[in-house]
Amino acid sequence: MGDLNIFIIAVLVIYVGIAVIDQISIQSGLYSPLFAATFTGFMLGDLQTGLIIGATLQLMTLGVATYGGATVPDYLSGAIMGTAYTIISGNGAEYGIGLAIPIGLLLTQLDVLGRMSNTIVQRKADKEALKGNARGVEIANLLGSIPWMLSRMIPVFVGLAFGETVVVAINSYIPAWFMTGLKAAGQILPAMGMAILLHYLPVKRYWAYLVIGFVVIAYGSSMFSLLAVALLGLALAGIHLSRQGTLVGQTGFGGDDEEIEIDG
């Protein structure tokens, strides 16, 4: 098991800070577990493991958002540390997936602390607003991002800087049955994530496409890769859209009601 290079730690900590800014501003996707785990895998020289862990965690986070200031598990930090621990320990992607979830849940408390710290800056912004100082309000709001960033950057730095010690401690103190449970949970979570994804898709309307995809993967996996199945899905989507265009041309009305349904 090797130590993480200080340069890699610095890059990942900076990435977390930028991702937090992205999460509370433009939301380009840098904060997503998929990007974070993939970038971590790239930095540590194991892109495939990063993709597997990131894609699984991404499925878990579908539909999860911080509405009304609600706090959700910190999958960003969990994805980075889970991927890093997996690669330096060599225990497989299931280990990282199972580890990222409790890390994200544990860091939820720091998110609450970051939000509470932010209220101090926001009071300053309120005072500047009463004075009519727009520049002061702008600066106060920018300063408000610092507690958010530190609530992720500090634990990620500590976790990565003492990664070997942390992993050795985990492996030493956690009983074997618990580690087996973590790996079992890591193997189950992809299926659960897929179930969450299907919940948000109009499966009742387009069940035939689901059956086609299942048959190709379940019975033709020796012939078809995931890329091939994705291209098949793209072709079927193109055929569906073409048929809709034809129906609209013939009747003047849309063929299917495209309102998204959520299966209950």
TrEMBL record:
Keyword tags:
Cell membrane, Membrane, Phosphotransferase system, Sugar transport, Transmembrane, Transmembrane helix, Transport
Lineage: superkingdom? Bacteria
Instruction: Enumerate the transmembrane spans.
Output: 6-22, 153-174, 181-201, 207-237
A single Gene Ontology CC annotation of this entry is: plasma membrane
Q: Does the keyword Ligase apply?
A: no
Q: Output the InterPro entries linked to this UniProt entry.
A: GatZ_KbaZ_carbometab (IPR050303), PTS_IIC_man (IPR004700)
Q: Where does the record place it?
A: Cell membrane
**Is this entry keyworded rRNA processing?**
no
Its record classes its membrane topology as: Multi-pass membrane protein
Pfam families for the chain: EII-Sor
A single GO BP annotation from the record? phosphoenolpyruvate-dependent sugar phosphotransferase system
Q: Which PANTHER family does the UniProt record give?
A: N-ACETYLGALACTOSAMINE PERMEASE II COMPONENT-RELATED (PTHR32502), PHOSPHOTRANSFERASE SYSTEM SUGAR-SPECIFIC EIIC COMPONENT (PTHR32502:SF28)
Q: What is this protein called?
A: PTS sucrose transporter subunit IIBC
Organism (species): Erysipelothrix larvae
